[in-house]
Write a structure and sequence with these properties.
By secondary structure, this protein is α/β, with parallel strands linked by helices. The chain has helices at about 15-25, 45-60, 75-85, 95-105, 110-125, 130-135; strands spanning about 5-10, 30-35, 65-70, 90. Helices cover about 50% and strands about 15% of the residues. The model has no long low-confidence stretch (mean pLDDT about 95).
Length: about 140
């Protein structure tokens, strides 16, 4: 089974702080890079940085997964270019549960199964609660 690497690419510092938050729970993780696109940043510079990280991980023989925040934004548009150019995987809507699922399962699942597991875990973590649920109401 190939080793896996993760790039988290988001607007602002969201992804950077998300990785830090997950590391508070799980400890420091290897093979993960997070990048953000802030208002003052150059999109082409972000593209170059992402390419460099992908090429580095590929030279190390790792399979690569890209997490982005929202489909249609600059981070996801760049990531989609990388999917086509480098044959990497991409998942949108990154959240903490998805990161935890990646780090918990990346050594035990093949990439296709891991990606399905991550998406399932991330979406199943979304719940709706109403005050009635807590007060025994209707």
């Amino acid at each position: 089974m190939k080793e896996k690497a993760l790039l988290v690419i988001t607007h602002g510092r969201f992804g950077i702080e998300l990785v830090k938050s997950v590391e508070m729970i799980m400890g420091e993780q290897n093979n993960v890079v997070s990048m953000g696109l802030c208002l003052e940043d150059d999109v082409d510079e972000l593209r170059i940085n992402i390419k460099n990280e992908i090429e580095k991980f590929q030279k190390e023989g790792k399979e690569i997964l890209l997490f982005v925040d929202v489909l249609g934004g600059s981070p996801s548009n760049i990531a989609l270019q990388m999917v086509n150019e480098y044959k990497v995987y991409m998942i949108t809507g990154v959240n903490m549960l998805m990161l935890i699922s990646f780090f918990s399962n990346c050594d035990s699942l093949e990439m296709e199964e891991l990606v399905k597991n991550i998406v399932k875990t991330g979406s199943e973590g979304i719940k709706i609660f109403q005050i009635e649920n807590f007060l025994g109401g209707k």
